[in-house]
Amino acid sequence: MFNKVIMAGNLTRDIELRYLPSGSAVANTAIATNRKFKKQDGTPGEEVCFTDITFFGRSAEIANQYLKRGSKVLIDGRLKLDQWTDQNGGKRSKHSIIVETMQMLGSRDDNQGGNNNYNQPQSSGSYESAPQQSNYSNQKPQTQANKQASNEMPEIDINEDEIPF
User: Fold this and answer.
1) DSSP-based three-state secondary structure for 1
2) How do 117-119 and 72-85 pair as beta strands?
């Protein structure tokens, strides 16, 4: 099966960095993405999606060092379903993203890091890990004409037969 999520948005809170007993870094935050559209009556509408994200290893430390609330970032990773029982005994769940790669967007002043790519080192401990992905280096060679477009959003080559819906 294929589990890949790519999101571009702004961080909704500062990075929360902690270390596992094994010494691996784990950083948590959330990303907000929005979609603008026209309603049936012609007025503009906006839909905002807030999603928790988790970084592991060196990427967690880099995110903590260079990113803060409001930073623009492009992430790709895998979707994870978190389930738990709340204080009242009710079953709760939410989706989150385990980040495999990130790209800082915006100016140096926005995130103090410029426009850099960072591969996510694979995690250790109780979290599952997936094969390491490169930062879209398998794309076609870039010409001057498509360099600008590729900085905005990567192309994804997915066979329509693989989509379950």
Assistant:
1) coil
2) unpaired
pLDDT, tens only, 127-160:
333 333 333 333 344 444 444 444 555 555 656 6
Which residues, 6 or more positions from 94, have their beta carbon under 8 angstroms from its beta carbon? Answer: 52, 81, 82
Instruction: Output the DSSP codes for 73-110.
Output: EEEEEEEEEEEEE-TTS-EEEEEEEEEEEEEE-S-HHH
What 84-92 contacts at long range (C-beta under 8 Å, 24+ apart), as own/partner pairs, is none
pTM above 0.85, yes or no: no
SS3 31: strand
Amino acid at 115: N
Q: Please report where in the chains the tokens 């900085």 appear, as a residue.
A: 151
Class of domain 5-137: mainly beta
Distance CA(155)–CA(157), nearest Å, equals 7
Determine the 3-state secondary structure of 111 from DSSP: helix
Answer whether 104's CB lies under 8 Å from 37's CB. no
Residues near 3 by Cβ (< 8 Å), separated by ≥ 6? Answer: 78, 79, 130
Cross-strand pairs, 119: 101
Q: Domains of the chain: which residue ranges?
A: 5-137
CA angle 146, 67, 31 (to 5 degrees): 75
